[in-house]
Amino acid sequence: MRQLGYEVPAGEIARRLADRGDAREVFVAGDETTTVGWAAVCIEHGFVEGRVAWIEGFIVDEGSRSAGIGRELLGAVERWARQRDCTTMRVQSNVVRERAHAFYERNGYVKIKAQFALRKTL
């Protein structure tokens, strides 16, 4: 996560994994000793769009990119969503991550709009 600028303590990651419930899943790529990528997905029942699967996070290690790992993770996420009757996948990607945009577009995703993301700490 640090490679994309997110600092999350290991204990917090463990808590989130344990608390994911039926509407959220995390897929991990790697072997017994090394993680080279992960994808987190959740289902939302939106008022406007209905049942939608959202990619909450998607990261492949810099040294492992362009090896098909991202495509495999994305396929796993999409299969999981279809099995739960989602008809739409959504993902948000920072405007500066052009390589990520190209990856999603190669895999059938279409840019639908540009917008601002706003946050307020509570």
Structural features, described:
By secondary structure, the protein is α+β, with helices and mostly antiparallel strands. The protein has a single domain (2-106), classed as Aminopeptidase. It is 27% helix and 28% strand. The protein is built from three helices and four strands; from the N terminus they run H-E-E-E-H-E-H. The chain has helices spanning 10-18, 69-83, 98-106; strands spanning 24-30, 35-46, 50-60, 88-91. The chain has a four-stranded mixed beta sheet, covered by helices on one side. 11% of the residues are buried.
Characteristic key phrases:
alpha+beta; single chain; 28% strand; Aminopeptidase; four-stranded mixed sheet; 122 residues
List the helices and strands and how they pair.
Layout: H1 10-18, E1 24-30, E2 35-46, E3 50-60, H2 69-83, E4 88-91, H3 98-106
Parallel strand pairs: 3-4
Antiparallel strand pairs: 1-2, 2-3
